[in-house]
Task: structure prediction
Amino acid sequence: MDAAERSRKWVAAWLLTGVGMTVIQIALGGITRLTGSGLSITEWDVITGALPPLNQQQWMQEFDKYRQTPQYHLLNFDFTLSDFKYIFFWEWFHRLWARSIGLVFAVGFVFFLVKKYFQKEMIRPLLALFFLGALQGAIGWIMVASGLTGDAVYVKPTRLALHFVFALGLLCYTYWFALQLLVPRSSTIQNGKLRKWNITILLILLLQLLYGALMAGHKAATAAPTWPTINGQWIPDHLLKEESFLLNLVDNTVWIHFVHRGIAYLLLLLVIIWSLRLKHITASPLLQKVKWAPLAIVSVQVLLGIITVISSTGIVPGHWGMFEWMAQLHQLTGMLLLLSLVTTLYMIKAEG
Result:
């Protein structure tokens, strides 16, 4: 292994560490949402906010700030300091992990720069990576701020969805960058038709993940906790109850629930067809290993989605139960499905 190849592998390992930490960060975001913790910290102190309150006086100061929020007045007015500490922990840990990701990337960047491991073609993607990371942090605060004014009890679902989609974009960008450094061209194939299928499925999946975030933001699982029908109907009433069609797309829980289910079935069908087409091609050993992953993951994803919806009848505020576990696993498999499709997209090149 020559020096250039060694440096590429070290940089790729660093990027994959970031990918793993980002997956954990998105999962922590899901826990923060499911525990209702996202509005417990009312300020964005990048440096000083890294430490939690260290004594009773500091805890009371943070609790007093929270007691000025609409969420406290309208929803959690009976909270004790102990209740507040619980939700504070998850939001604080979510932010701490984000800081840790930034630190890992900053320290790694300086280390590899000093060691001269960066090759010329790596610089521009690295700068884009840091920009996307900073943008994601800013979007996160804009999301939190949307729940601290007026009569808001939670953050705005559209901003939650934006935060989630940008996090997935950052995840995929980092992962793609690592694949460029790790996977040799000999492990890829050329097949324009299969690549178009791959891109189509990825775009539909991104729409599905966007609607998954809207489901979470609106707590829309409880709008129809039945399966296979939606409250006894295949095509439910009130799909267009909002005056504006655009409002139905992002605010109507029945519409959101219906679309999220429908896209899930469409994705399952498309991945089955695509996987059967992949079966009959001559693939590299690496592609042979990963080509069935999307089908396996999407099957589990649909099953978890069904269980999540059905178990939503057992939601108990302030209690982590079956619904929360299923919702969290559902989100995790969604990320794994996305990464598996990015992997196959990288390995199936366009012809020409």
